[in-house]
Amino acid sequence: xxxxLMLLFVVSGGMALATxxxxxxxxxxxxxRLSASLSIFLIGVIVFSLAMIVLMIMGKRNYLITLPxxxxxxxxxxxxxxVYTIILTITTPLVGVGITMVGILCGQMTASxxxxxxxxxxxxxxxxxxxxxxxxxxxxxxxxxxx
Length: 147
What we know:
Radius of gyration: 18 Å
Order of helices and strands: HHHHH
Number of domains: 1
Number of strands: 0
Shape: globular
Helix content: over 70%
Number of helices: 5
Distance between the termini: 36 Å
């Protein structure tokens, strides 16, 4: 049951990313691509800041204190979010949300298979098997068909 709930949770995350692309495309056309991307990050910072305040009021540990003690390479994830948001803002108005999301999914699967297979970035090793390669081929086929 827990795995089904987690699967539904990650699928809803994917739906949220598609919705974000649908917002970013027109917003980028209206106010400029960098301004649109910046606005998305600013709103995220505000929401996360409010969440941190609520956690501190509830007496939860302030994780920001431990942030400077983390390995520097772990903090580069924000750069990836920046690149991702810029790509969404540029491509969505040109090719549509569907093609953008299938392309993003193709890139995600390719990178995640490599990360899992080689145990990169601190993740546990999980060898690539024929099922995973087959899934990637189906996603590539979907990208080709939808484009």
